[in-house]
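Researcher: Checking consistency across runs. Here is Xanthine dehydrogenase accessory protein XdhC again:
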Amino acid sequence: MTTLSTTLSTWLSQGAPAILVTVAEARGSTPREEGAGMLVGRQACAGTVGGGRLEWTAIATARRMLEDGSAAEALDLPLGPATGQCCGGHVVLRLERADAGTLAALQERERRELTARPTLLLFGAGHVGRAMAAAFAPLPLRLLWIDGRAQEFPETIPAGVERILTDSPLDPLASAPAGAGYLVLTHSHALDFEIAEAALRRGDAAYVGMIGSATKRAKFERWFRARGREAGALEGLACPIGAALTGDKRPEVIAALAAAELLMAFARPLTPSPPPPTPARSVHS
């Protein structure tokens, strides 16, 4: 996903003027949240503040500013009959002529937003893993794509995706932040089990998903219990993923449905699993 700062940097380096449009206030039902932004140039736009008449008005105002030299303006827009939008909310847009200072501020804001994004660890770079990486790359996630087979990764990694080439996939799992998501679809069922077990045992995952059938899940549950693990942790496992909703097993469909599952999981408040009970100590007289 190309960021607004990347686009603005390119435009400024080419000497192309631009207006940055930002949602300064959003009250009630609105198509975008406060802080959402877009860039408007003479011939092109990047990003969105919500579409419809709201965005058309913003673009028209920005292009008029490019022509008359205005430095900054604000638009106060109720989203009702006057704008042909039935959201019913109220939006204030801030428009400013972009320069090097604007670029620096935009880069800093995007850096903070990136830091605040939830982390997803995607294990496996096979055909389903590649479809997953392509589907997740545009989403507001920090995506770590992990495999030990260099030849399985595509020549071009999707923008914003961090490739981790390692034969020790449990290492990045151990160092992941609380509230991360884990999507397990390696070439090996044994490795899938090891990774899924480690993710569940952390007790702080927003999502743990493992590709496979109901039969694979049942086998994993038996294996998990046989290792003496807490059976209640299995409630945090999504398996099958994606295809369970429709029966469609095409990689792109699985990826789209898994993305929906993940975004819903990340939106829920994180409830850490309670620690295992402390064994009772014997008391001898």
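Researcher: Does this match what you'd expect to see?
Model: One thing to look at in this run: The longest strand covers residues 19-27.
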